[in-house]
Specification:
heterodimer; A: 549 residues; alpha+beta; Multidrug efflux transporter AcrB transmembrane fold; Hypothetical Protein Ta0175, Chain: A, domain 2; Gyrase A, domain 2; six-stranded antiparallel β-sheet; four-stranded antiparallel β-sheet; 14 helices; B: 322 residues; Alpha-Beta Plaits; 2 domains; two-stranded parallel sheet; 6 strands; elongated; disordered C terminus; Protein-export membrane protein SecF (chain B); transmembrane (chain B); protein transport (chain B); protein-transporting ATPase activity (chain B)
Amino acid sequence: MLQIDLWKRIMIALTCAVGLWLALPNAFYGPVEQHNDAVNAIELQGETPELEAQRALWPDWLPSGLVNLGLDLRGGAHLLAEVRVQDVYATRMEAQWPEVRDALRSLTPVRRQQSPEDELRVRLNDPEKMAEALQIVRGLARPVPTLTGAGATDIDVRGDAGVIIVTLSEAEKQATNERTMQQSLEIIRRRIDEVGTREPTIQRQGADRILIQVPGIGSAAELKAIIGTTAQLTFNPVVSRGTDENANPGIGNKIVPSIDEPGAFYTLESAPVVTGEELVDAQPSFDQNGRPAVTFRFNTSGARKFGDYTAENIGSPFAIVLDDEVISAPTIQSHIPGGSGIITGNFDVEESTNLAILLRAGALPAGLDFLEERTIGPELGQDSIDAGKVATVVAFVAVLFFMFVSYGLFGIFANIALIINVAMIFGLLSLVGATLTLPGIAGIVLTVGMAVDANVLVFERIREELRTAKGPARAISLGYEKALSAIIDANITTLITAVILFVMGSGPVRGFAITLGFGIITSVFTAIFVTRLMVVIWFERARPKTIEV
Amino acid sequence: MRLRLFKEAPNFDYFSRWKLWLGISGLMMIVAFASFMLQGLNYGIDFRGGTTVRTESPRVVDVAEYRAALDVLELGDISITEVFDPSFRDDQNVAMIRIQAQDDQEAVSVETISAVEAALKEARPDIKFTSVESVGPKVSGELIQTAAIAVVLAIGAVLIYIWLRFEWQFAAGAVLALVHDVLLTIGVFSELQIRFDLAIIAALLTIVGYSLNDTVVVFDRVRENLRKYKKRDLKEVLNLSINETMSRTFMTSFTTLIALIALFVLGGDVIRGFVFAMIWGVIVGTYSSIFVASAILLYLGVKRDWSKPDANAGNQYANIDA
């Protein structure tokens, strides 16, 4: 029973070697990180002597995968945002109105009624024609692709006492939500990329939430300033300016407050001349008085609309509106043909830079609510790493020592296996690109303590078998044989809990589950293969008549 | 020279007073549960929403000064505690400020946090904010629910696994031992009012895993011995099995405890509660695998008729060759 085939020996040694190889870069964290950053930078912006020097810090042929450090170790900001997907329903209904009006025009005059935001209510002047009107409006519905393939359409239409009520269908709501989420993710990603921080995590969570983690950023508030603004920019004609928030704006108009003149309200035409979607570029700059401003450029169609409008309305004011607040309302001095312009207002430099980023990255389709935010300072992260390092080393040395005094030579075998074990955990973590968190470090320390368990089980069993006076070879082989079922059962149950933690947990808890799970796998591997191989090789060489475990 | 706990396999009688032990364990569970119901846990912001601010200042923390600065803001219940840790430098004076979730605010507001930071900065210009965390009430409700589900799921999954690998009496014993461990841990947290947050749930699940590990090792030996000594009394077999595995139980608990204590002393204050839960769990888990899990097994009795050839003949995996 003490034979191990040559190919198995090679496989075991090879597995250990691969694990150590993958773990290697983590021992030189600083240089490897600079090397990786330099490689990425060179790919983006070409080579510079400085970047090349950084790249040379770590040879290219060595593995360069690192364990990512979690926010609690590196410092940075964490946000959990909920997207107000319903916002989009209102916009959709707003767009539906002219369509319905035009479709019914030949039948009977209609008027729009007050309604909840996600509904469109249209009163028919001639209620007798309800049946026909319903048919026409239903004809406007477009098919929506659904998972079931059933013929769903995008709107539900019903009639109620001379009023046609249009709402979005469930299928369309879901499709819209899905689109809203995709767009929001994309735009948040673009905005964060514009700021240029490293390795941000932007993940969808559940139906309508987005998790954003940005290492190295100063605070969650800073992050919010970048992603929290919807940044919907429009240029609207101004009807009048007043101080009454509740004045009746008239149909087709709306009242919008001014951003920097408290108490001032503008009455604007609801339909914008041009929107931010037609911007191609925005840059922070300064106006002729040297105050911070933002210059922008429209695409061709935007430039034409803007040009035509300014040509026709010289002398009248128009408003630049950002997220339902008027930034400024200049008077059109002359025809502006080139499609570029400047937004002035009460900005400081930082605000104008942020606004330019927001305009370049595009508007969010819906607003965000923040449910959770965490900022970890880099000092605290560094303190945690330092403390974790010291604790791990002390725990490691203590366990190594204790194993040696308890089991002698066999203890040394177990210790070598334990060192390989920890290296393999790091190798696996780097391989899958997992994130190491503070509880994750605790998971490793716990593994160091528990990993010896499988070896202890075997060694104790060998001791027992030796007591019943069998030869050493027989005792060793029986020890491994009989301890196996206990090792497997005990570790599978722990693995079950690690998997549940991983599935149910989030953030740091998940980091803990990953290291714990990997630790269980590697410790079983090292105990039943690596230690055993060492024992067998030693036994073959030494051929002892008696052994002491 | 070897360090050896037992020269020969020990021969203690664990079950001479097994009903007493079961009674004591049951009583402790009741006490823990009562403490949890009456006093309640000191939930962190993960579970009840709110904001915590960790501050660092070169000068000694003056709780009254901080409180005076913040009282002006009328943010409701504020708790300020000074944090001590051997790993801190001399000029590192750390305090944790916890602010309750603000009414009628579903989401986390920037204004509250910046007002708090500004007020503290004014009282003490050299203050630094090393971490600021805010959780809205919506998420915290969900987090506590998910956490409870995770613990129940873990225990349920284990019940099924042990049932499949052993007999139902073993599964019942193991699961009762787990409930015992989880309850006692929650009881300690409620009694000592240690902050109970998400990480503690991770610790709870690890305790479940660890305690189970221990129980399964004992049960594995019981299963083996039940086949070996068909005529012996169940109590004797249990005693024998526990004695045979005792030196392993001690070794493993000891190495794990060494590692955890190193982490407890040197790992910094951020994870101290987490590590404390695990140390407590290792002790309670080791106790419960003998005095709860095995005692329950004794109480329930086990099928002793192993005449039919069993697929799980002691070492199902023994054919696997390295």
